[in-house]
């Protein structure tokens, strides 16, 4: 197992633990007011910190047992750190003005990099319904970014100028829920509880 993979897994475990106890605005550990904490989708690390994509409020930094709202970006689905002052982030699908976009975050200021929703509406890589929902982003050398769009079933390459290239279309695939049902102890042969009927 590579050191990078191990460090990401370790960060994930720590961040998930902290995410479930993310402080509210009244908590004295906050360095800046943080409220309306929503589900945490994306997690990455920076120098001595864990960065969370908190869909309820935006990009949140965890450092020295304190949280800081780096950038207000409701609907954020993932984040990647370029350096201590610069990050990139995606927002997922929906009907708000910030939906389905790739953003640059520089010293807490958010600017639009690429409109992923407009690309899906124009190009529609999988030929199915228009349904952009970018959920994962990875910074690449040369100032580019790789974005996985679950709604569009596509892998997208974003150039430094915001131009979007379509790399691949991913096929629809039914995924068994048997494993998660067994983890929740769903019974076989009789009407299961609500969590098991999915």
Largest sheet: 4 strands, antiparallel
- The class by helix and strand makeup works out as alpha+beta
Mean pLDDT, to the nearest integer, reads 80
Helix content: 10-25%
- How many domains? The number is 1
Any idea what the shape is?
globular
Q: In angstroms, what separates the terminal alpha carbons?
A: 33 Å
| Tally of alpha and pi helices | 3
Could you tell me the strand content as a percent range?
35-45%
Parts with pLDDT < 50 across at least 5 consecutive residues:
1-36
Order of helices and strands: HEEEEEEEEHEEEEH
**What Rg, in angstroms, do the CA atoms define?**
18 Å
Number of DSSP E strands: 12
The strand line-up of the biggest sheet is: 1-2-3-4
Summarize the structure.
With 198 residues, this protein is of the alpha+beta class. Helix content is 16%, strand content 39%.
Question: Would you spell out the secondary-structure blueprint of this structure?
Answer:
Elements: H1 3-19, E1 40-46, E2 49-54, E3 58-63, E4 66-72, E5 76-83, E6 86-91, E7 101-106, E8 109-115, H2 116-123, E9 134-140, E10 144-149, E11 154-158, E12 164-169, H3 178-183
Antiparallel strand pairs: 1-2, 2-3, 3-4, 5-6, 6-7, 7-8, 9-10, 10-11, 11-12
Overview of the molecule:
Strand 9 (134-140) and strand 10 form a beta hairpin. The protein has one domain. The longest helix is centred in the N-terminal third of the chain and has 17 residues, at 3-19. The chain has 198 residues and is α+β, with helices and mostly antiparallel strands. Mean pLDDT is 80; it is low at 1-36. It is built from three helices and twelve strands.
